[in-house]
From TrEMBL:
Gene Ontology molecular function: any one: pyridoxal phosphate binding
Domain spans labelled Tryptophan synthase beta chain-like PALP: 37-330
Gene Ontology biological process terms in this record: isoleucine biosynthetic process; L-serine catabolic process; L-threonine catabolic process
Record's keyword terms, sorted: Lyase, Pyridoxal phosphate
CDD domains listed in its UniProt record: Thr-synth_1
Cofactor: pyridoxal 5'-phosphate
Protein name (Swiss-Prot/TrEMBL): Threonine synthase
Domain of life: Bacteria
Amino acid sequence: MDYQPPKFDLSLVDRETWSIFRYRAFMPLEGEYWREISLGEGMTPIVPFGEDVLLKMDFFMPTLSFKDRGAAVLISHCKAIGVESVVQDSSGNAGNSVAAYCGNAGIDCEIFVPEGTSPKKIDMIKAHKSRINVVPGSRDHCADVCRNKVVKEGKYYANHVYNPFFYQGTKTYIYEIYEQLRRIPANIVLPLGNGTLVIGAIKGLEELLSSGVIEKMPQIILVQSEYCDPFIQAVQTKANKAAMKTPLKPTMAEGIAIGAPMRSEEILEYIYKYAIHLIAAPEDRILEARMALAARGIYCEHTTAANYAAYLKYCEVYGKTSDCLIPMCGAGLKSDH
């Protein structure tokens, strides 16, 4: 996408709009279709969790995950260009978001998810009146099956990994942090599977940098599953592309269990350019982290708990890490299985 937003300035934010579309001055939107598509996504609070950690409560969304940021913009674009039917593959949350926004837009929708996807996520997709296909095998195989349908039938691929409009939504994660705190924390934790939040967040940070709003990049800390860590393996060998990695075992962090990340070259460029750190979430500490969060009133899904488990591991490796913001990406009821 050849789009250059204006320099970021809080004076261009529409403070009368209570959704991510308050930042529409920095988005490539066509017309006013967003007004009929938006479900009030975004503007999620940031809450302190001890003296060192801030939590961005991104499961306070219409479909209970941060993926609503991207889906709202992508489906607004689909509506603007007259798309009538879409297909998409997902580990659950992105499919749920696309299904919901397609429902609101009156766009036909078919979602592909891999076996092992949380039944609660499947139920939500069905509730939005989308057709759903549960594909045997891995998340990566599920994507192959979906893309085959796109090629054969010429369907619009409303994919959160490839479609650039999705990242125009996820970059608002950074806009909100800056507007809410009037600064960017020193350390930003992000989950890394296919990288939809990672790419969007880095785009947002780069826009703040080029606008002179911030002086330097924060330390970005990317979280992979201990059982599925193609980016960690790639960095260890200084590779420019992640090799296909079959998960060693099933992981509770299903949202980041991506063995063949489709934009690995782009993400690795970012990792090397900005000296980004990577850390594996210890599988045996995900439930412990989830219970620690829940005991303080924050009930999140397993993949989200992996972010906090990885942060604790990061502190063990690198020492006390203060002023750190961690995303609460998905609600707990989504992964009670």
